[in-house]
Batch of 2 targets.
Target 1
Amino acid sequence: LFAQETDFLKGVVAMDGMPPADRLEVCFAGRSNVGKSSLINALTGRKSLARTSNTPGRTQEINFFTLHDSHYLVDVPGYGFANAPLPVVKKWQALLKAYLSGRASLRRVFLLIDSRHGPKAVDEEIMALLGKSAVTFQVVLTKSDKPKKGELDKIITKTKEVVSKYPAAYPEFILTSSEKGDGIATLRNTIRTLV
Ligand code: GTP
Ligand code: MG
């Protein structure tokens, strides 16, 4: 379902540019620089399908990738700090919120959280927004190659505590490293069962 079967379809800057909501899709959302685009590349096994960068604010459009012609994977701009002018960032954020709360075919949001930092206030805003729109989200703790074991255990406990307040949350987390490949097969399997 993944490697040979994914392709870039289009980047969208306004709701009316979206492809028709005629097939199920999953989206990867999270703070700027958390590793959304890298995760899409790891999932598809294609190193530069989605553009990545060390600079927060790399992804500036809602990018649709076709999965096996029958589904979409969706990469979105990050929220929180971005290395771009404020009015521009505000425009992406408005588009992101409109997308997350108004897309009929959105099956699940993978909400990416950095495994070194845990959830922040902006993540909770998105969790609440998804609850209002009745869209399920599942937490993916990214960059699992970075924290030490003890540090990671604390972050997992804290994340569970925060997430349990939000009814839109899917209870299981997935721990991933796009660098080392950890958790990628699990995430692929999860997506397979969803779409
Ligand atoms: P925006 O589009 O700016 O919101 O960022 P993004 O969430 O798409 O992040 P991106 O995939 O561009 O990755 C940001 C940085 O984190 C890059 O320098 C990546 O190489 C790095 N990175 C992403 N995933 C991992 C990971 O699993 N492990 C490590 N060590 N670094 C990672
Ligand atoms: Mg990106």
Target 2
Amino acid sequence: STPFLSVRDLRVHFSTEDGMVKAVDGLSFDLAHGKTLGIVGESGSGKSVTNLAVLGLHHPDHTEVSGEILLDGQDLLTATERELERLRGNKMAMIFQDALASLSPYHSIGRQIGETYRKHTGASKRDARARAVEMLRKVGIPQPDLRVDDYPHQFSGGMRQRAMIAMALVCNPELLIADEPTTALDVTVQAQIMDLLKELQQETGTSIIFITHDLGVIADIADDVLVMYGGKCVERGTKQEVLRAPQHPYTWGLLGSMPTLEGDVDVPLSPIPGTPPSLLNPPTGCRFHPRCTFAEQVGGGRCAAEQPPLELVEGRGAACHLTGEQRARFSADRAAAR
Ligand code: SF4
Ligand code: MG
């Protein structure tokens, strides 16, 4: 069967005064109905840009986007602005780290949720208000019939995040893109929001793309995982595959500082040395090579010269020159080091 969302060879390049920034450079993935894809990577890895392209929110003047983004068979890259307008908020919606950026300070929470609903359903103001109350109740705002007339500044950070989720879900979108929606929240509220998203997904069958730099969050919510580095996917697989048997040295580095699925391994926090690559002048060969401690194992300067292809078997694989045998050995060493 055709996947609900299918992205093929997506490239998003910005022209800047300094040259072309290849923010996303040849990305492909599928997402099925009701599933959650976790996209993980450091800031500047291209994960947010990918999703803005899905929503058609990239700046058209300075951006070249190519490839294919099929949502239920419709190519979003060739859709008109009007068609995208109809899809956004209705069939697909987004939540961000900063609720204040997506909520207007000038209108009540209820009005904003209601307006989104009215825009796509043509509901009356009265019905829209009732729907806003219902949504606020659903996302766990206490006394929603009273709080519906509050303004964003009257809500706490966690409540604003819930209100933003209510607004995103008011039209039952089939695709929800969540870009670090819990990063700014304290751990307790973060856990509540994650539980809420999982609950709502169970109820509505929404597909979710969850963008994060936090593998702990991935372990909590994702079905499949895509690891991005320097505008490219370096590893893909199911959550179990990627977190339990990672294949790419970059993922090994990420996991060195994160809990595992079982959450029972004490790993010292060790950020990956070095900085993310420039997307203006990306490193030659494997983009990770300047930071990779395994490049000399591959030998022959190959990592600096030759870009490793992402070779997938049934959606599973990594882009790295290490042989399967080398990987198995290094993985075993990693496990032993724990
Ligand atoms: Fe490291 Fe080479 Fe693999 Fe890139 S291709 S991750 S530099 S070993
Ligand atoms: Mg981002």
